[in-house]
Amino acid sequence: MNKLENKVTVVTGGNSGIGFGIAEAFRNHGAIGTITGRNKETLDNAITQLGGNFIAIPGDVNNSNDLENVFKKTFEKFGKIDVLAVNAGGIVDGVPMGTISDVTEESYDRYMDLNLKSAYFTVQKSLPYLNDGASIILIGSSAAHRAAPGMAIYSAAKAALISLAKGLSLDLLPRKIRVNALSPGSIDTPVFGKLVPQEHLEQVKQMWIDITPVGRQGLPSDIGNAAVFLASDDSTFIVGTEILSDGGLTNIS
Ligand code: NDP
């Protein structure tokens, strides 16, 4: 059954990994809309795979003019916006996360800007264009609950994002706009190639498989399917909370 028939969706970072998985799942349930990202080539490839009912609008989520442009153009093209998936985030290109002695004020700000500030202002810039009753999904992380060496800033930003879902959902209640966080565990996406040298890639993925109770890494479609639920009318009583899709990762010590 098409749970999102004719819903207009915006997925930030919809040109790669989890964002693409979300856009694909939305498309599979009848949605139309926009994907964003900075890389023109991967945006074009994603649009080819998503088909004619999706458009790509390039932009940097840390640039407010770019954000404004995404929502304005989406509204001009489709006439409304029903669902916003705030997914862009993760690794800052060329800036290692590092443990506390490696982190500079600049690298701290860059990670917070990408993984927290951009989400806040993505939501803010969307509001003039968003339908009353819309669903906003903030992509968090199991890292908000489960520490890993050298990832303190990322974990803190994602934990704050979950808090943002709670607070913003109250701010937006008068418009019946729901805000929830959807937190993936370890998902097999291109991010691992950015974090780990090629020769160690399989070993690192195997480590995640070994520590994930269900015995596999997640797929972008796992997150996509959960996002469809949060975007759809099946979840209208779910407000300002977090859903974990992590194969049980956060259940283990
Ligand atoms: P990818 O690296 O595959 O995708 C990251 C996406 O974010 C790309 O589409 C990228 O597009 C976009 N992006 C990054 N920086 C910017 C920017 N400044 N402006 C606009 N777009 C940007 O990673 P994943 O798919 O794995 O990650 C997606 C989300 O899921 C992130 O928020 C990440 O923190 C979260 N997550 C991932 C997990 C995993 O195991 N993979 C686990 C938990 C959470 P472009 O480069 O074209 O700008």
Automatic annotation (TrEMBL):
Pfam families: adh_short_C2. Transmembrane segments: none annotated. CDD domains: SDR_c (cd05233). PROSITE patterns: ADH_SHORT (PS00061). It comes from the Bacteria. SUPFAM superfamilies: NAD(P)-binding Rossmann-fold domains (SSF51735). InterPro entries: NAD(P)-bd_dom_sf, Sc_DH/Rdtase_CS, SDR_fam. Belongs to the short-chain dehydrogenases/reductases (SDR) family. This is SDR family oxidoreductase.
